Amino acid sequence: EKGNHRHFMEKEIHEQPEVIGRTVSHYVDAFENGVHEIAGLDFRSASRLIIVGCGTAAYAGEISRYWFGSLARLAVEVDIASEFRYRDPVFLPGDIALFISQSGETADTLEAMRLAASAGVQTLALVNTAHSTIAREASLVVPTLAGPEIGVASTKAFTCQLSALACLAVLAGRHRGHLDRAQEAGHVASLLASPGLMVKALEREDEIEQLAHEIAGHETVLYLGRNQNFPLALEAALKLKEISYIHAEGYAAGELKHGPIALIEEGLPVIVIAPHDALFDKTRSSIQQVASRGAHVIAITDPEGAHALEGEAARIITLPKGGQLTDPLLFASAVQLLAYHVAVYKGTDVDQPRNLAKSVTVE
Ligand code: F6R
């Protein structure tokens, strides 16, 4: 039931603080500020983590690559299932393969998992639907606890995937000796704080709705991000495309000069995910480059970033200060709201966008 909400998507966006909290609680011990061991999962001798999914699930995997790399020094290869399964992928001794799927029924993801299993690789399934085919066939299930997701555009399943992946990256970091107790406790504390921060992020909805009205008439929108916010920019563009039918593209900010900057013209909306992190100055210089060519820059940032970007970005959405593992959760909620309000304003069918099905059981 939609309750007070106009659409399931709106309801599911607002459920996120609760369901990411539930998902994090499943993986962590809040008293010890540590991540639980998972029977049958050992990252110590892993040589590589292969992550496979489709669409939004694959983007969650892409974001987590940055975490497994920096927290656990674990090499990660991420692929979309339809490419992975047909490219005769190379499996190496010590590979672990993780398949991400909300529905647990996506045909390409399932076949990719069967391929890895037949090569003798341990298969983990990060799924939201416990009784699904992917869950049943995997050697180990790591759940997301988002509850049923009805809106075709994935929202809460995505942020629950990110929450679970963050916990797995912390576990891998401990297993591989790259996180000490204090560092692990710091990461866990920040994950436990993420629901509260997301409540604050969602309070920006009225401002985001105003911005949505500004961009609803445009034919193209660009999203830029760096580091872990690059795949988030891809996800943001996918969300806008799916439900508002506006052509949107995500780019790594550092790629601008290698092509996409040619697209910049007067008034083009460019949405930049710009937390005040170690790469802020680089993102800021991308903002300056596109703004000086006439782009209408909308920066999504934190209080420190907002201060620094005053006068440089045409619009600034200020979210609470997050961290490495929590920023993508907060930025996700903002870009979901933006896509949602553009679609509502345009009058498209938000929960049932044209040509799309919730579960893609044929390739
Ligand atoms: C995007 C979206 C799709 C799914 C993709 C994978 O909003 O919903 O891109 O993420 O079809 O679906 P699952 O996760 O069910 O395997």
From TrEMBL:
Organism of provenance: Glycocaulis abyssi
EC code: 2.6.1.16
Annotated gene: glmS
Protein's UniProt name: Glutamine--fructose-6-phosphate aminotransferase [isomerizing]
Localisation per UniProt entry: Cytoplasm
Superkingdom to which the source organism belongs: Bacteria
Keyword entries, A-Z: Aminotransferase, Cytoplasm, Glutamine amidotransferase, Repeat, Transferase
Location of the active site: K358
Catalytic reaction annotation: D-fructose 6-phosphate + L-glutamine = D-glucosamine 6-phosphate + L-glutamate
Domain SIS: from-to ranges: 39-178, 211-353
Residues of the full protein shown: 244 to 606 of 606
Function: Catalyzes the first step in hexosamine metabolism, converting fructose-6P into glucosamine-6P using glutamine as a nitrogen source.
Subunit note: Homodimer.
GO MF annotation: an example: glutamine-fructose-6-phosphate transaminase (isomerizing) activity
Top-level enzyme category: transferase
Broad class of where this protein is predominantly found: cytoplasm
